[in-house]
Specification:
This protein is mainly alpha-helical. It has 2 domains: 86 residues, Erythroid Transcription Factor GATA-1, Chain A; 270 residues, Orthogonal Bundle (Retinoid X Receptor). Helices cover 50% and strands 7% of the residues. It has 13 helices and 9 strands. The chain has a 3-stranded mixed sheet. The protein has a two-stranded antiparallel sheet with strand order 1-2. Strands 3-9 form a two-stranded parallel sheet. A hairpin with a 2-residue loop joins strand 6 and strand 7. Helix 5 packs across helix 11. InterPro entries: C.elegans_Orphan_NR (IPR051152), HNF4-like_DBD (IPR049636), NHR-like_dom_sf (IPR035500), Nucl_hrmn_rcpt_lig-bd (IPR000536), Znf_hrmn_rcpt (IPR001628), Znf_NHR/GATA (IPR013088). Its main location: nucleus. It is found in: Nucleus. Keywords: DNA-binding, Metal-binding, Nucleus, Receptor, Transcription, Transcription regulation, Zinc, Zinc-finger.
Amino acid sequence: MTNCQFPCRVCGQKAHGNHFGVYSCRACAAFFRRTATSKWVHKKCRNGHEEKTCICKTCRLKKCLEAGMRTEKFQYNRDAILLAETSITPSMSYFVGRPEFLLFCDPEIPTYSRFNPKIIIDVNHLISEAARLLDLGNSTPYQAENQLKKLALGFNLIKLDTENVKFYGKIGQTEFMDIIEYYFVKVSKWIMHFDGFQKLEKTVQMKILQAIWHVWSKIHKCSSTAMYRKSHHGARKMHKIIRNTVMDREKAKMDLSWMSDYPEEYVIRYMFSHNCQDFEIMEAIENLDPSDVELTFMFAQLCFEYAGKRFQGEILKITDGFQQILSNDLHDYYVRDQRRPRYFGRLNELLKVNNLVQKSIWQSRSNSELGRVFDVVKIGYSHPEMFVDSGFY
């Protein structure tokens, strides 16, 4: 009400509207709002003008109250910008189940680990199956011009069928184990298409295989997701291909109670922190749109580079030799097949993607260290060396 015909019942000036139950001007309304709960409520007039004028705050406040203004008429929470309701983040001692002065002590003490024993996952059957596949070699001999193209033929056998994809309804312990088994076996079959790898001693083969399977699976998930997005225009950003099956991060039900005693939302956040670069990797692959031969080179170069840096020594010499063979084969592919002698820019883009994957692995190591300190994941393995940098350990 902006054009009120009544005078202010406090000062007699033109009223602006009904404020706190009384027709008053804005000045008196603002004054009452400021002083109604202040010290002036309890003070007395020092000037002795109580019956004549309201020149002091005490007298003016008294007139406001006598006119009928009430603090019950105050309205709160009407600010244009309201502070979001926040909750105090639970303390680490609350999660770990130990007082703060014991947080960084040995987690094997009875206050925690005795009541929350680790779940040991036995992967001996996987190791035995991989050993059998390595002894068997290629079930079907393939003929190709060079080693890179021979690896590409092996890669085509496990290429994503974009026309027949299924969705995960939930992911729990069964699905978790199935994902590990799927990728370890697939990498065992794929790597045997490389003649240089077949010539290695069995112990060296197994050591390299146990190191590279999860690196291979990481770039496979990203490249398959990029391929899926390209062929399905309705694909959502939260869709990701895992084991040639689509997982919707927002809709799929995650059962992680078997692997951790922490609240599920925090465990999910911890698990996804190991894939912090995945969206960038998938976007880069989607924009690059590599051929099967280029994609095979990316897979092999990334895996051999990782294994060499991890083990050093003799294995580094072996993997450097493998990379040299693949580089020569890629050169022939560009020059002879693609008739593209100036391919340096293209090769640089391929290696940028691989560097992103390596960066993602390096950045996740600090999260894994913290996870082990605070027992975020209560999983152990019969062969822990197989899960270093995997995000599962």
